[in-house]
Amino acid sequence: MRIRNLAAGLVAAGAVSMTVVGVTGVFSKEPVPPALAAASLWTPDPLAPPQLSASNLVRPAEMRADVVPEFRPAELPPVTLADNSLPSIAPPLITWSRTIASGETLDAVLADAGLAAPDRAEIALGLGAEYDLRRLRPGHSITLVSTTDGNPRRVELAVDDGVRIEVIFGEQLATRVVEPNSELVTFAGEAVIESSIFAALAEADIPARFAVDLAQMLGGTVDFRRELVGGETVRLLWREARDGTQRIGQPELAFAALDTGDFVYEIVWPNDGSGRATIYIDGEVLRVFAQPVEGARLSSVFGRRTHPVYGNVRMHTGVDFAAARGTPIQATAPGRVSFIGRRGGYGRVVEIAHGSDTVTRYAHLSAVPDDLAQGQRVMAGDLIGRVGATGTATGPNLHYEVLVDGRPTDPLSDERLAEAAEREADDTAALSRLDEARTLLAERLASEIAQTTTERL
Q1: What is the pLDDT of residue 23?
Q2: CA–CA separation, 171 vs 416, rounded Å?
Q3: Is residue 442 part of a domain?
Q4: Are 265 and 221 in contact (CB under 8 A)?
Q5: How many CB atoms lie within 10 A of CB 243?
Q6: Phi then psi for 281, rounded to 5 degrees?
Q7: Exposed, middle or buried by CB within 10 Å (0-12, 13-18, 19+), for 204?
Q8: How much is the pLDDT for 366?
Q9: Both 211 and 227 in a single domain?
Q10: Rounded distance, CA 83 to CA 88, Å?
Q11: Which stretches of the chain drop beneath a pLDDT of 50?
């Protein structure tokens, strides 16, 4: 009953709504303007079909039911392999170096580097092919280049004057001697003496070893302990062999001038290797002197000392010059050979008589020239032997001794050798050499001063 009443209500409501709409449409209709009516009748022109060119037209291939299409992979361009093989990598190397100490042997140093006995023996044979290993001394150095597993690749022995002996390991063992590519450079310096020549040279950055050369050359003329009271000037000219910035060997004096205020002492050394130096006083030739060992180091002076072998205090009757084994030894003054042979702790000895009362003795020699004979006349600068370590010696050196009436005297202060030494035969040539040395010293000193000033600026 309720459902029928609800349906009847809905029908009546719909009828009323339609009546209202119809009445509203009738009462709201008005005439339409002509322009608006015309605009409502416009329609767009039909679009022209697209024109496809024949080149762009793709026609599908006629397909047949009984034909299966064949699919092929796209062909790839050929690949060319570049011949870039990887470089071979050398194994890492280790460098080991050490200076030979006093009393050490080559085998001991190589053992310290960790080399096995067969390798040490092979290295010794290689080095020995180019260098007498008996000449090894403290200051020489060994450099070993090896792989991480201990196999040696190269061994280098650095000896005197920048010379190196190399042993190179490969398919075959190769040994070569490498000489330094050196040039001779001249230097000059000036120093004022306050306490000692040694200290003055060291303060002026001049090789202090030159103090020994000056003491040796002027020891019989100038008393360095009493006559040098301070304020004296010393000017030096010397030569050095250089490989780049590295000095090779020991420097050599070319000219020295000592101005004491009262006198001017000058020394000109020759560059011919003879060791004959000319000493001047106030511009005049005083005497000619020949050093027993050119460029050697004065290692022990005359007087009482503790003996290096026996350990007790005893008189040292000469002066010692430390030098490499085989270094030439020259007579310091003209005379006649009075003895060649051995004398106990002196070892091999050559003695030269200078007149009736003075004898010079050269001891610890390793060799004497075959043509040197007793009674033979020698001149200052003549070769009479070579440095060695025969007799009682701790190392290669020359023991140089001067005996007057059989008694030893200080070789650096005795006047008799100066009297026995020959005067220059041609004083004109000697004075010419002095002028050349003075001029070169002045030029080098001016150059050194200019360079120092530039560096400061």
Answers
A1: 45
A2: 64
A3: yes
A4: yes
A5: 13
A6: -130, 120
A7: middle
A8: 94
A9: yes
A10: 15
A11: 16, 20-29, 414-416, 418-420, 422-425
> Cα(11)–Cα(6) distance, rounded to whole angstroms?
9
pLDDT digits (tens, 9 = 90+) for 365-414: 999 999 999 999 988 778 999 999 998 887 888 999 888 888 887 775 54
Which residue range(s) make up the domain with 446?
181-269+425-457
Residues 6+ apart with CB under 8 A from 336: 352, 353, 375, 376, 377, 378
232-271 pLDDT tens trace: 999 999 988 887 777 777 788 899 999 998 899 999 987 7
Q: Are residues 433 and 401 in the same domain?
A: no
Does the residue 340 lie in any domain? Answer: yes
Could you please report the per-residue DSSP string of 250-302? EEEEEEEEEE-SS-EEEEE--SSS--EEEEEETTEEEEEEE-SSTT-EEEE-S
Per DSSP, which regions of 323-396 are E strands? Answer: 328-330, 335-342, 348-354, 358-367, 377-378, 383-387
Nearest in space to 234 (alpha carbons), one of 264, 271, 276: 264
What's the pTM value of the predicted model, to 2 decimals? 0.51
pLDDT at 416: 47
> Where do we find the tokens 């303007």?
33
Identify any residues that bridge with 62 across adjacent strands, giving them in sequence order.
Answer: none
pLDDT of residue 384: 94
At position 263, the amino acid (one-letter code) is F
Q: Identify residue 222 by its one-letter amino acid code.
A: V
Q: How far is CA 449 from CA 166, 193, 245, 252, in A?
A: 41, 19, 20, 21
Which among 178, 205, 229 is the end of a domain?
178
pLDDT at 309: 54
Beta-strand relationship, 348-354 and 383-387: unpaired
Q: How far is residue 126's CA from residue 414's CA, in Å, rounded to a whole number? A: 49
The token pair that represents 112 in the structure block:
């310290």
Q: What are phi and psi of 5, to 5 degrees?
A: -65, -40
- One-letter amino acid for residue 81 of the chain: L
CATH number at residue 251: 3.10.450.350
Domain boundary, last residue among 116, 146, 178: 178
**111 Cβ partners below 8 Å, 6+ apart?**
120
In a 13 Å sphere around the CA of 274, the CA atoms on its Cβ side amount to 14
Question: Domain total for the chain?
Answer: 3
pLDDT of 170 reads: 83
